[in-house]
Design brief:
Order of helices and strands of chain A: HHHHEHEHEHEEHEHHEHEHEEHEH
Number of domains of chain A: 3
Helix content of chain A: 40-55%
Distance between the termini of chain A: 76 Å
Largest interface: A-B, 41 and 42 residues
Mean pLDDT of chain A: 95
Structural class of chain A: alpha/beta
Number of strands of chain A: 11
Oligomer: homodimer
Low-confidence stretches of chain A: 338-342
CATH architecture of the largest domain in chain A: 3-Layer(aba) Sandwich
Number of helices of chain A: 14
Chain lengths: ~350, ~350
DNA sequence: TTGTAAGCGTTATCAA
DNA sequence: TTGATAACGCTTACAA
């Protein structure tokens, strides 16, 4: 298309003035600046990406590495990718996708070829081979999620421990003495980084608060209704009066349906609270109190950190935890003795 | 990292020889070539992306545009993105993600700035604003899916009409006279490009073969078990002896469970055939005959076309249909009169 | 406030 | 079979 010298000519200025006017890196008198902008728009000028990279030593591209394993929960994952792309674009960056085997090999490649200014890491596993790569490459890397060994890394994530404690405290403060958690499919506790953190915080804090507590997974490799109902039945039989849910929307739907089938009204006969869900809980059949995992929050923060890392002083390694937020919807109340409802 | 002149120096050759040895665009004597390759590997040399784009006027990047609407079925979509990225990488291309509002605006931007060599279009809607953009930009654009107006475009897709006819023929040839189709959620027939094609081919061809036929959606905006069971019940009540399924894995699971609950054995009491499913049907509780929609096939073809379009003679507009394949699993057999089983 | 010009690291043309 | 070297289109000191 149009090149910078055509814009310069048409605006009657030098090439460098066009560059400065458009990048804002040097003051330009208001009227020449407007003249330049008008011409640029009229000609549909867009700086040549390759030339810009070469001369500016900035690519304006972030690489996004996501293995996309078979057990990745697609809707959740898609929300993170989307949130990252939107946040990056707002700062003028495009997203280059590194999936599959390229999730690791691509990191080295884009770093070595200067194809990206920084790397954002998604779908972080407890033992993640990308940790070692991040330490060895020359461009900044931001993890969205926390691997077991986060030494020397920059990580961003919801404070799952705080979120979980907040959930336990909420039901404990409401007077519940016996609680239960229905979690993710079992595989998530092996391959993903945060479900184990939620589970252990739950158990530790319930113990600390002196609550009787149980935990059940919602399936083996994916949510299955039979397992969920079994876990729910066991919890209720054990006398649980408050339920913490940590899983996908479909698991919530199954639980709510089963509670309804048992004639238990949420927020009256039984308290239910959703922890670290990343879907829109307003879409559930029954509104639930929620301490959500908001992809936009984590991803925006990660992008900000990446942008900062490209500034004059480089980022120091740290785990950035995002404070949990409690959203009430009336699904948690004081317990009713099971005896009374039976 | 290492630059080309360092490689040249270390290998004792000129810069241009290094470039040619590594790109293979000019014959280089076997031993100098190997010397160069060894040095390059040792130094971890990777050509600078910006310089390569600028000098070569090829970016080695494909843009992938995907709006990611709220009603996009995430797992299916993820399979297409993954397949595209893998196919592109095999040809030496990286994928730049254009989502959300950038799905359209980004197309213009990457074309104008020469950030990508071609655009691949995913999640094609019947009336898709990217069609007009594709016609107006300077770089080749390949649609994976077919919009209503495909004039002048290059499109790739499974031949859904042929797949559907194949399905109808299969059950008709087996002797079934009353058949039913359980399809996608209703929204898919408004917003997506191929479900309407499957539905109308089904109805037209069933009519042509003189079959009694019915059609039911599997929900409103997403699959819901109640709607599926209702559609199934109506089909069976109407005397259908063969079922064509066109939807996601969860819909299949609901149907199979309901058939089992009714004591109907698939492949004996009732025939079931899955049309244009993109998940792995081997994971279903009961194996089903399938005419699959294979993301790898469409995406590989699209990438090939994009690569071709960058060659000397440019691509001519065409709709490339992929032939359907029938995978038998014993779920289709001759009909048993309903009267006998009742 | 603006202009001049030196790179940035490749690719590809032209010679040898 | 190989080497010089002129683009490629921009950014950014350095001057004015």
């Amino acid at each position: 298309m149009a090149k910078i010298h055509e814009v310069a000519e048409a605006a009657g200025v030098s090439i460098s003035t066009v560059s400065y006017a458009l990048s804002g890196k040097r003051p330009v008198s208001p009227d020449t600046r407007r003249r330049i902008e008008d011409v640029a728009r009229a000609l549909g000028y867009e700086p040549n990406a390759g030339a810009r990279m070469l001369a500016g030593s900035r690519t304006h591209i972030f690489a996004l590495t996501e293995p996309l394993r078979a057990d990745t929960h697609a809707p959740t994952h898609m929300a993170f990718v989307l949130a990252t792309a939107v946040a990056a674009r707002r700062q003028g960056y495009d997203i280059l996708l590194l999936t599959d085997e390229q999730a690791s090999a691509g990191m080295r490649r884009v770093a070595a070829s200067d194809l990206a200014d920084a790397v954002l890491v998604l779908d972080v596993a407890p033992e993640d081979e990308r940790v070692a790569i991040a330490r060895s490459i020359a461009i900044p890397t931001i993890f969205i999620g926390i691997p077991n060994d986060s030494e020397g890394l920059v990580c961003v994530d919801l404070d799952f421990e705080a979120a979980t404690r907040m959930a336990v405290d909420r039901v404990a403060d409401a007077g519940h003495r016996r609680i239960a958690m229905i979690g993710q499919p079992a595989v998530a506790y092996r391959r993903s980084n945060f479900p184990p953190r939620v589970r252990s915080s739950y158990e530790a804090h319930a113990r600390a608060r002196g609550l009787a507590h149980s935990f059940a997974v919602s399936g083996e490799t994916q949510m299955d209704a039979v397992t969920v109902r079994a876990g729910l039945a066991a919890s209720i039989d054990a006398g649980a009066t408050a339920l913490l849910l940590h899983g996908a929307d479909d698991m919530h739907v199954v639980v709510l349906a089963e509670l309804a089938a048992r004639g238990l009204e949420v927020g009256r006969d039984i308290s239910v609270l959703s922890v670290a869900a990343s879907f829109d809980s307003a879409l559930l059949p029954t509104p639930l109190d929620t301490i959500p995992l908001i992809p936009q929050a984590s991803c925006e923060r990660a992008v900000e950190l990446a942008v900062q890392a490209l500034g004059p002083n480089r980022l120091r390694p740290a785990v950035h935890l995002i404070d949990p937020v409690y959203i009430a919807a009336g699904s948690v109340s004081a317990p009713v003795a099971i005896a009374e409802t039976a």
